[in-house]
Amino acid sequence: MMKMKSGTMVIILLLVIFGGILLAEQLGLWVTQNDQISSGGNSGQGREVVLVPDPSEIRGSTTFASLLESFPIDQSVLYAAFMIPETMDPALLRSGDLESLFEETSIEIGNESMKIFIALYMGLDIELEATGFPQAAVDLILKKQPELDDAIRSYLEENTVDARPLENPEIEVEDHEAEAEENSLELIQISGSTLFGDLLEMGLTVEGLEDLFGEAYPGDQVRVKDYIESLGLEYSTVKKSIEALTGEE
């Protein structure tokens, strides 16, 4: 019988172990921590599928009540981030009202600040624009996401302003019930860990996806982002086309 050197056996064992893990991951049986989004959602096939609104879709007329209903963020966190008095009704306060709350700042605090705060607080991708943040908002982001990369930390540092809300801001309080449907945030976020099977759960069809890509359906366990990039396509552009198929873009 042929004897095998101990070093060779170790190499073979490592290949078997890691090869098995890679195979299990492809089959959806192995879930790494990065595959999960901890903000809550529907679970399926051993992984957490989370659908949250795209923060970039937040409008100036979106009420705080709508934000709290759409994103898994406590009112106390949102109010603390922008130093909003607890007495203010979230149903009557709009994201764009931040401009009236913070009129005297070196960098404007407004709707863009709200978009980026929510995205960074939740660990979602968003294009970073020049906009102001109170120190309280930055502190909450860094506490929630302690592993942010240096580029985002530098961005936050550069855009932190010494801000105090006005004592008597001129905010036009309106009844937003009539425009609630128009300004509601739909579940349109597709993340980098979304699988094709998740798209089917969102209401898309195999036929619709095949028409979009001009290719055979790749399978439920294939990551959408990986598949798009394997075709040499721009992920962000195709992502919008997929979201358009749901009628929720």
Structural description of this entry:
By secondary structure, the protein is mainly α. The chain has 12 helices and 4 strands, in the order H-E-E-H-H-H-H-E-H-H-E-H-H-H-H-H. The protein has helices at 6-26, 64-70, 75-81, 98-101, 111-122, 135-144, 150-158, 180-183, 196-201, 206-213, 224-230, 235-245; strands at 42-44, 47-49, 133-134, 160-161. Strands 1-2 form a two-stranded antiparallel ribbon.
Mean pLDDT: 75
Structural class: mainly alpha
Provide the β-strand percentage band: under 5%
Tally of helical runs:
12
Classify the helix fraction into a percent range.
Answer: 40-55%
Using only CA atoms, what is the Rg?
23 Å
Shape: globular
First and last CA, distance: 66 Å
Largest sheet: 2 strands, antiparallel
Instruction: Tell me the number of structural domains.
Output: 2
The side-by-side strand order for the widest beta sheet comes to: 1-2
